[in-house]
Amino acid sequence: MNKKAIITSALPYANGEIHLGHVASTYLPADVTTRFLKQNGVEAYYFCASDDFGTPILIQSEKEGKTPAEYVAHWNKRDYEDFSSFDIDFDYFYKTSSPENIAFVQDVFNKLNDAGHIYEKEIIQFYCNNDKKFLPDRYVKGQCPYCGAEDQYSDLCESCGRVPEEIKNPTCSICGQPPTKEKTTHYFFKLKNFGDSLTKWLDENDHLQKDVKKYVQNWIKSGLIDWDITRDITWGVKVPLADADDKVFYGWFDNHLAYISTALKFFSDKGIDGKDFWNSADIYHFIGKDIVYHHYLFLPAMRLGINSEYKLPDYIPTRGHLTLQSKKISKSRNWYIGLKQFLEYYPSDYLRYYLISINPYSQDDLNFDWDDFTTRINSELIGNLGNFVNRALGFTKKAFDGKIPESESFDEKDSEVEAKIKNLAIDVGSLMEENHLDRALKKIMEFSSYFNQYFQHKEPWKNGPGTTNCVYLSVNAVRSIAIAIFPFMPKSAQKIWMQLGLDGKVSDTQWNEISELRISLGHILGDSSPLFARVETSDIEKYKKQLGHSE
Known about the structure:
The protein is α/β, with parallel strands linked by helices. The chain is 46% helix and 14% strand. The protein contains 18 helices and 17 strands. Strand 15 and strand 16 (327-328) form a beta hairpin. The two termini are 49 Å apart.
């Protein structure tokens, strides 16, 4: 394991609140992974930023009587607060409209231009006569020319993941009228030139998901399209050329460069050489499956175009979309749950547990279901993990005044149980390293279930032979669980730590200590109380009825 890591997530667009669909595929898996790496002694940093530019922000800020800068400042602050309340622990959260990112984007463009990777070309672009403006990609919808899916943006088909050369049956997203075509001049990035070098990078990177890599390679074989990197709007990073006619960069040209500029800003403030750290670290970009094209083609091609001055990603963990009650999330139809809203109902660890447990390391979509949430929290989190912690610590408090008694010689069952503890760090850690976070969490829950059965088998309340061994091993297993669940459920992990009567923070304990029996004779436990409260079906029915209804 590399002892340095930089973790990023796809940037949240500064145009509305964070909802459950946002956090499931990107921010939560990235946060869990970062916490795990730090527990393993890796100097790991999790960076993110708000994505501040683009037409939707320009239009919405006008509607609200704000400048675009004022508008995005509001959402940058709100998004960070919402993430923080969900225990997403960014080391630095910045913005694409920062002076550092603007300067960095313009510098990258100049280097690409000097290297001959940029050209100017007159094109025909969609223009809305009704709204009197050229229409950027997100303001043109139509049918995907590749897969035939309807109601797709002109710059990305969410159904097949490809970027259409030209959308079919286009309409203006603002007014619904068919746009006309008008001449305009734009700057293009020669993506076609990078087919061979992208193929080489894909072939040599063993950390990328095989299925994602395969269809990206097929896209390259079918022919890449040069990339229009400028737009005719006022709100964006200005193109640093004298004859650029007030053009700005397309959002996907500038936003992923904020991964690097945000890292450089963070390291510069600490007096660290940011470029050196970036190039000596493992680089992770956590994304949803809808932006594979950008992260597997545009982003690496741009870095290749500046001679890999900043290394390409080592890992691009890609996951599917979240549906809600088996229907596509839609803010306009009020078919969504805001993150802030959810956290008014239940603790963050409930949602963290549920979203990780249903989220495989694949592009398969996952579904948030209120009934399934209820079952998993009540039967798994409370009935299994909470039950074991409570009975192990509660019994020790009751029978031994919370003081760990002297153990006896282990019988065969005790030795088997001890081996379970000693193997847990590797059993769970290997899955975490492979990004199978759901399987790692399941392994911890199996460990807890095993100890529930052990406790039941030993019947320590009868005070027979082996009672003290049961207490000793069970309390140490609780300690192992506290360390192991920290990346997933940090608040619950710390609660267990305190109930164990241990000093400091569980986060300061190294991962490999999971498999050490550190709680010994005479140790005194803290006060124990139930970790979790039941989810009531009457509440769930109320939350279900709120979906699809206007406020």
